[in-house]
Structure formats: C-alpha cells, structure tokens
C-alpha cells in the first residue's frame, strides 16, 4: 500500500493543486503525528515554568521530577524535533515532485508557501506569544533546503555528521568560549574591585557585558522572580513585554547559528525518502537492524551524557563553576550522534508497527494528527498560553514539573480524538486549508462531498 501511495505522490496529476487525500502517504503522516505530539513533551515546561525551573530537582534523584525529566531527556529531547525536521524535508520533495514531473515550474508556489509559513511563525511568536515557535525558522530554512532536493541521497545524508562536527567546533565551542571569556573577564574585574582598585574602562565594560549575558542566559533569583511576575500579569501586553524582545533577538541575531542543524535534518529526511525508508518500502529486517543499532548505541551514549551533566553541572550555579574551569564541554559532541541514533530507532519502531498492522486504530489517529500538524501545533500554543499565562487561567509557575504531563496526556487525547473526526468531514485542518489557499492564491474546497469512513 505504501509503495503504491509513494508512486502516486510523485506521478499522478498535472494540476498545480494540493496533494489529494488519495495521494497522501500514510506512514509519513503517522511519523509527523508522532513527532508533533512528542514535541509538546519538551515545549510545555517553557510555557508553564519559570527560569531555571529544573534547578530544584536535577540534582535530587529522590524527587519524582528528576526521573520524569531523565526519561524525557534521554528518550525524547531533541529526537522529536529531529523527526519533525526530517519529515518537513520529505514534504519539500513531495510538494515539488508531482508538479515537476508534469513539466510545471512550482518554484514560485513553494517560496510563497514558505513565506506564509514565516508569517504564521511571526504571529505564533509575537501575537500568540510562544517563545519556542519553530514555524518562522522552518519557513526560512525550508527555502534553503529547497535548493538541495535533487542531490543524491548519500550526499544529503552526509550533511548530518558534517554539521555535527562543524557545528560542535564552530557553534557549541565558540558559544561556550564566548560565554566563558565574558565570565572570566567579569571575575577578574570583580576581584580587582574587591581589592579596592580603580577599574579601567575595559574592566567596567567586562562587568556590564557579563551582566547582560547573565541576564539573558543565567538569570538570578530576583530576575527570575521578575519574569514570573510579568508572566502572571492579567494584562496581555505586560506578558508580551516579557518575551517579544528576547524572541526578536533569537529570530535575528541568533538566526544564522540556528540554521545548520534543522537544515541538515531536512536534508536527511530527503535522503531517507529517496531511499524508501520513511515510506516503509524497505524490508522489515532493515528496520529491525536500524532500531536495534539505534537503541543499542544511542541509549548508552545519551544515558552517559545525562549522568555526566547530573554529576558536574545539574544547576545553573554549578554550570557557571564548571564553565570557569573547563574550556570545552566535550560531552556536547555526543548530542548530535545519540540524537540521530535514537530518532532513527524511534522512526524504525513506528514503521515496523505500521507494517505489522498492529494498533491500526491508534496509527490511523496519529496519521490524522500528522495530517493536521499545523493546526495541532498552533493548538498547543493556544491551549498552553490560556492555561498558564496571566491573561488566561494564570497557572504559570504553579505546577510541579511532573504535573505538566497530565496536561500533555489530555492534549494528546483531545487531538487523537478530534483530528480524525474533523478529517471525516473536511479535507484539511483549518490552518492547513488557510495555508494552501494562500499558497495557491485560490480558495481551496474544504468540506468533503461525502463524509470519509
């Protein structure tokens, strides 16, 4: 079934129109649905909890929050975003392939599509106030990934280890060194000040520079309390003042360092599509091999990395002390490799379930969630900001870490129920419909002629 669908997706129609229901690849929708729901596991603490929220439990294995945090970090942190990025890369190929095989130029359509995604991302971050929005970045990075879509899959896949090594050398190490140098210059100036010396202009600047960096990356208790006060305000504009400048800073000053990682993952997704991996076309034994290798090597690596951070820098204060004595956090290099190993293992597990025909009802629901991923992603923002922000139910910084995952389970249940019901009567999710209509600059048919069964 998946093989036929994959063929249909690149060869059937000659019209510049959205992919029809019959042309969809169910396995890709399911993987997208898994990634979308999994992303909420990592996002919800940043909707709900104050600065340095994990300082209170990351060094305490007797605390239930420690173990919830450990499981999520080891199994899901970074992996769900990686899977989502990979499937986004697949989407670029699927969007273009059918039109190009029909001899049509769809470049303008694609860039219009990404342009609207950038705008939706700006709305999600600056109007709906989700500081962790990815739509803006994916719209921009998608425009870059577009130009690589015709490369051979091997070259596409090689971008991942290349970015892992280069990214570690140029971004992780450089960032660490920059923060460390600012910290050491500050400590030197502070020490001189304590000895009664008159500070030079450069020493005074070192103090100012560190205080600005510290406020952004390592807020103290007073700064964290002020941020929480702003978030709990019933005034929308007061809450917005907490995030907007910080979000704008990330979307501009830190945009370039953010690009390589999602870009490499999108290219990996393209390679996996061309190899038939994400469409379930490979033999079962390949997925078993990938899953066992991924878990066999990835789990020990990520567990060691987690244990190392627990031992050496479980809190912000301990991290600053570690920063002062270690020029490089070498365990950061583990991250990219354990994440790829585990995301490939997770994807293989899901594809094996699809091929087995087991839990088909759940898989169908996950496919519906994935088909409405845009709508469901923004729904996460709407629900979580309403529950936690001051202009909603004002639950910000009121819950313990583990309690957040009861709400995650409730949102998952809601979307697993509502998404297939919606798609029974409508061809697209509401935001998917708006996005397609804006892309093709033509109102798309929304309601199904007859309800799907």
From TrEMBL:
<feature type="transmembrane region" description="Helical">
    <location>
        <begin position="374"/>
        <end position="392"/>
    </location>
</feature>
<dbReference type="Pfam" id="PF04235">
    <property type="entry name" value="DUF418"/>
</dbReference>
<feature type="domain" description="DUF418">
    <location>
        <begin position="272"/>
        <end position="442"/>
    </location>
</feature>
<dbReference type="InterPro" id="IPR052529">
    <property type="entry name" value="Bact_Transport_Assoc"/>
</dbReference>
<feature type="transmembrane region" description="Helical">
    <location>
        <begin position="328"/>
        <end position="354"/>
    </location>
</feature>
<keyword id="KW-1133">Transmembrane helix</keyword>
<protein>
    <submittedName>
        <fullName>DUF418 domain-containing protein</fullName>
    </submittedName>
</protein>
<feature type="transmembrane region" description="Helical">
    <location>
        <begin position="68"/>
        <end position="95"/>
    </location>
</feature>
<dbReference type="InterPro" id="IPR007349">
    <property type="entry name" value="DUF418"/>
</dbReference>
<feature type="transmembrane region" description="Helical">
    <location>
        <begin position="154"/>
        <end position="173"/>
    </location>
</feature>
<keyword id="KW-0472">Membrane</keyword>
<keyword id="KW-0812">Transmembrane</keyword>
<feature type="transmembrane region" description="Helical">
    <location>
        <begin position="404"/>
        <end position="423"/>
    </location>
</feature>
<feature type="transmembrane region" description="Helical">
    <location>
        <begin position="116"/>
        <end position="148"/>
    </location>
</feature>
<feature type="transmembrane region" description="Helical">
    <location>
        <begin position="30"/>
        <end position="48"/>
    </location>
</feature>
<feature type="transmembrane region" description="Helical">
    <location>
        <begin position="290"/>
        <end position="308"/>
    </location>
</feature>
């Amino acid at each position: 079934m998946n093989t036929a669908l994959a063929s249909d997706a690149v060869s059937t129609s000659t019209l510049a129109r959205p992919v029809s229901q019959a042309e969809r690849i169910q396995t890709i929708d399911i993987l997208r649905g898994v990634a979308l729901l999994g992303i909420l596991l990592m996002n919800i603490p940043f909707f709900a909890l104050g600065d340095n929220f994990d300082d209170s439990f990351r060094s305490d294995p007797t605390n239930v929050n420690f173990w919830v945090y450990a499981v999520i970090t080891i199994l899901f942190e970074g992996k769900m975003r990686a899977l989502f990025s990979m499937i986004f890369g697949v989407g670029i190929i699927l969007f273009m392939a059918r039109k190009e095989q029909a001899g049509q130029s769809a470049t303008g359509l694609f860039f219009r599509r990404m342009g609207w995604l950038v705008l939706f991302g700006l709305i999600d971050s600056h109007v709906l106030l989700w500081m962790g929005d990815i739509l803006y970045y994916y719209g921009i990075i998608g425009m870059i990934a577009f130009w690589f879509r015709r490369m051979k899959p091997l070259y596409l896949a090689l971008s991942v280890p290349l970015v892992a090594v280069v990214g570690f050398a140029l971004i992780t190490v450089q960032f660490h060194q920059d923060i460390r140098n600012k910290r050491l210059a500050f400590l030197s100036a502070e020490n001189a000040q304590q000895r009664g010396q008159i500070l030079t202009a450069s020493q005074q600047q070192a103090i100012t520079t560190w205080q600005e960096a510290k406020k952004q990356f390592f807020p103290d208790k007073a700064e964290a309390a002020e941020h929480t006060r702003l978030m709990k305000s019933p005034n929308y504009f007061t809450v917005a003042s907490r995030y907007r400048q910080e979000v704008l800073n990330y979307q501009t000053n830190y945009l370039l360092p953010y690009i390589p990682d999602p870009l490499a993952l999108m290219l990996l997704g393209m390679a996996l599509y061309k190899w038939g991996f994400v469409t379930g076309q490979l033999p079962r034994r390949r997925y078993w091999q990938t899953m066992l290798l991924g878990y066999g090597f990835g789990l020990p690596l990520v567990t060691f990395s987690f244990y190392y951070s627990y031992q050496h820098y479980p809190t912000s204060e301990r991290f600053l002390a570690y920063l002062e004595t270690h020029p490089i956090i070498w365990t950061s290099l583990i991250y990219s490799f354990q994440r790829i190993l585990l995301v490939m293992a997770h994807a293989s597990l899901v594809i094996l379930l699809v091929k087995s025909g087991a839990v088909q009802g759940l898989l169908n629901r996950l496919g519906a969630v994935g088909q409405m991923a845009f709508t469901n992603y923004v729904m996460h923002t709407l629900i979580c900001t309403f529950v936690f922000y001051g202009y909603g139910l004002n639950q910000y910084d009121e819950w313990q870490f583990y309690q957040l995952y009861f709400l995650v389970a409730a949102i998952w249940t809601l979307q697993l129920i509502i998404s297939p019901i919606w798609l029974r009567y409508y061809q697209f999710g509401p935001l998917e419909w708006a996005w397609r209509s804006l892309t093709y600059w033509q109102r798309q048919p929304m309601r199904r002629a007859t309800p799907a069964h």
